[in-house]
Fold:
Amino acid sequence: MKKIFLAGIVFVFALTASVVEADPGISLDITPINDKVLPGETAIYKVNVTSQVDIDETVHLSITNPISGWNYTFSDNDFDLPALGSKTVDMFITVASDASPGDYYHDVKAEGLWNHWTVEEAVYTNVLTTVIPEFSTIAIPAASIFVLLFFIRRRRA
Structure:
């Protein structure tokens, strides 16, 4: 009984020891990682995709779970990437004109393909677009405070 138990443990250990995860075939870097824009404006990011394998592959860039009303485009979202090479493309995120001020996160997905087969897991990177309030929403309250202060000081004199 003890020999069967030990053989079972060795068998399970051999199975788990032989499972090795491969490194991803591409890496993804995006700059800037955070951009600040007004509603209706476009944030521009540089997306650098680097091959980490020694085969030519096709890369497809996309946004997972896009925000409704926002527009996402790449200067080139399907391109060939040479073995161990890299390519930089522009990513444009146009904010909806009725977007509320706040932080919005976007997941960028890069997927490497070889002969229409996925050769590695998809790589995801998260970027942040901060929508800032328009000037008038800041300027009007600030101006009214200055006017109020002017009248308060004038009464004292």
Remarks:
- The first helix runs from residue 2 to 17.
- Residues 5-23 have pLDDT under 50 and may be disordered.
- Strands lie at 26-31, 34-37, 42-51, 57-64, 71-74, 78-81, 86-94, 102-114, 117-118, 123-131.
